[in-house]
Amino acid sequence: MRRIAVCVLMASMAAGAAAGLALPAKAEPRHGMALHGEPKYGPGFKHFDYINPDAPKGGRVTLQATGSFDTLNPFTLKGVPAAGSTAIYDTLMAGAADEPFTEYGQLARTVEVPEDRSWVAFDLNDAARWHDGRPVTADDVVFTFQALTRSHPFYRSYYAAVDKVEAEGERRVRFTFKPGDNRELPMIVGQLPVLPKHYWEGRQFDATTLEPPLGSGPYRIASVDPGRSITYERVADYWGKDLPVNVGRNNFGSMTYEYYRDESVALQAFRGGLYDFRQEATAKTWATGYNFDAVREGKVTVEEIPNEVPAGMQGFVFNTRRPIFENSKVRWAIAHAFDFEWTNQTLFYGAYKRTESYFENSPLQSKGTPQGRELALLEPLRGKIPEEVFGPAYRAPTTEGPNGMRRNLLEAKRLLDEAGSEVRNGTRVFSATGRPLTFEILLDSPTFERVTLPFVENLKRLGIQATVRTVDPAQYQNRIRDFDFDMVVHVWGQSLSPGNEQADFWGSDAANRPGSQNLAGIRSEVVDSLIARIIRAGTEEELKTAVSALDRVLLWSHYVVPHWYSGVYRVAYWNRLKRPATLPPYSLAFDAWWLTDAPSMAEQQPR
Known about the structure:
With 607 residues, the protein is of the alpha+beta class. 37% of the residues are buried.
């Protein structure tokens, strides 16, 4: 019978080929996949190298969040989701923090990817269960994909190249991709968090909710104090606790996020022992705020941990949808009014380096003048991109040396004059229309006012009237979503494997899509073409070439006033909290930390 079946199959395939039908590419089931080359960890690996497989389980860790929350569903546009709300879900695949874009099976037992990467198929682990005991199925995966792409523009864009998703059995699902050369697509799909179809049927997925959703992950929601705190408890019979990607991770018995109205209040709470771990984002606070008794007595560890994490880009972002920012010379002139050197020394105690790349602190950033493959890629674009792209790498305006700010303001005045503006009665206006060059800088925290107000004062010397407005997080999020701002501070994170997300950051299709991260409003065929090259890069060399070229074009188009980066994690933690001896280069790997038996002060407080 087996021989007859094989003959029938071969005859069928031959008939299909003769008729000109495309036959599906073949693939072998594997334990993991990498964007380029082979995964670091082979079949049968026991755990990631950087974790402690014998880390004790249990204890309650208390963490902090700022602001408030009004929903427990982190996958929709509506509401502000609670901190940690993705911890209740598993993804199809899981990444390792000690290698670039590589994934290993989590919900998926195996993955199949053909050489042409035209599709990817996942066979789900037979043991995978929701917290109510029901199995995780291929129908859940299909439902999740459809729900996410219907309810949120980010997912609609992120998964736009997926042509269809099909359940090929109870535990097998296949994603078929649209024609193209995006090698990253199988891995993008592997990051999919899977949601339970049977739970969400009959519920409104895109509405805010404070009802704890059902998950399959290592934690479940134990209690909620709306807007004030949320507690997750470790699932004792979590189906995936012994998977190689989970060994030595998810060690806390429970995790509570306590909300504070601002960072200064949160710091005082940490000093009082009301939560266990703090990652400090403010250099001044790091320099002056951690000299307290518990540190001197050795009860709190304060350390800087070097990392190799791409810093991405943080800066003042111009909304080029606004007419005043249409001219790149105006944007470049305004950039000259930001005094990084003064800011770094006076406010940040010299803790930072200047950001001069959208892929800062990574091997992908542009350096020197374009050469070889990169120059060949850029040369046909000459005349469509700033001529500076073909010269030395971008340098942000600097005030180093004598009279640095005066020198910068003189250059800014020259650029503004060339852009067709002049000063009338102390206010800079566009000569042709008489429209004043005024704008608002929107912030979501008073903390950043000390950086922004000196910038505003320098702009006044150019006749530019800028104002600062600080709003609450909910209003800020709504205005950002709708691009209702002139200038904001924003951070675009980057990875060592840029891909589809670049279209959401800089692509023309994202410029008018509410909720996208194209806050600058970039609409450029050249940028779109470079993003497409990044997405379809087949080798690391091709990726580096395309990313570096994109970096140069974005930088010399002056969409942001670049800020700074540090290249280290600044962390403080009470010593009942322990970490692996060696952390991976690309993450703090906090999910691999653990607690000793000593109760925290927070655990001793009456609740």
